[in-house]
Amino acid sequence: VIVDGDDNVLGYASFGDWRPFDGFRHTVEHSVYVRNDQRGNGLGPQLMAALIERAKGCNKHVMVAAIESGNSASIRLHDRAGFVVTGQMPQVGTKFGRWLDLTFMQLILDPGAMPPDPHKE
User: Fold this and answer.
1) What pLDDT shows up at residue 93?
2) Do the domain assignments include residue 10?
3) Which residues are within 8 A (CB) of 63 and not within 5 positions of it... i.e. 6 or more apart?
């Protein structure tokens, strides 16, 4: 969470389990939010960098983002952080009376890592 001197929230980032199954425990889906009047001030990259480090510290292997396809600022933020587009899902949501498409992006946090030994976890 990033707050100003008056404790007003300017932005936040979080992650949670990608799927509720044991085999996906090393993958997280995340969110980054920056207040409208604070966009363009560098908070997004700051939050993203902290979130990536936190995920690495929690021994996560992959971060997944599901971004509304029209949100070019978020797609650009993720691209600059090293995420790659892995898929598109047309018309999977609605908002304000229109269909929304999702763009999926992911970042492999430790590309050379071997899967954990199930007998040692």
Assistant:
1) 95
2) yes
3) 15, 27, 28, 29, 30, 51, 52, 55, 83, 106, 107, 109
